[in-house]
Amino acid sequence: MDIFDIFLKRHEKHHTHHSYLSLMKGVIGLMLDPKHTESVFDIEDGLRHSASSKELLRFTAKDSVVQTLIKERYLQKTPPNTPELKKLPKGSLGREYVNHLDQFGFDPDYYRKIDVQEDIDYIMMRIRQTHDIWHVITGFDTHPLGEIAIKAVELAQTHRPMAAAICAGGVFRYMLKQPEEFGYCLDSITAGYHLGLKAKPLLAMKWEELWEYQVEDLRRELNVQVLGPRGGALTVEFSPQSRLVAERAAQQEINKSLFSAITMGEIS
Description:
This protein is an all-alpha fold. It has 14 helices and no strands.
């Protein structure tokens, strides 16, 4: 338990302060180590009661299928049965999902759990559960730039405040610590946001019932346009006009979501 955790524990009754401290702990932790998963969850927990999270719920619930899933509280009850998924045909969602987990040494049950009481709890939990499935479907890898691209997809499709915070944090980190890759960071955000705008809602899918379907068929159905061999974050080519439009749209959403997330009056 570090000094942040001790302070949060002592002040957990003070909801507003606890939220801000959790947010700042996550942002600082992610800037120091972009691969630190717990920092991601600290950010989201800090934003859970913000006006931005209300916008996340409002925006995602506009889709009637997502509305139904929220009412059903449709979630994985147990982690995916990876030995069984390995037996599925090559190119199937289940097989490619397991290959993804094996390639990077990931645990399918890695994410911080949420006690689902409210609709916003469900949305956050469902996005956490399906994070690696989104990687498989979009083609973005798990390089830090690929993770930023996934957050840009989430931002386009859900207005998730944590996704905005990570995209913004990525911009600052690459600008200050890896300026030679700063352009790649901007390309990743642009590519992910562009893909997310064009695709059908990934949050609306009951992925666990689609393990046997071919990934390429699902991509066609969802209008997911994989943009390059690494998912496109580093290789995508836009026309000057389309790139400018996508970058401006992405930056406007990032600015709006991040501003509302950190404005003092918006966390209750």
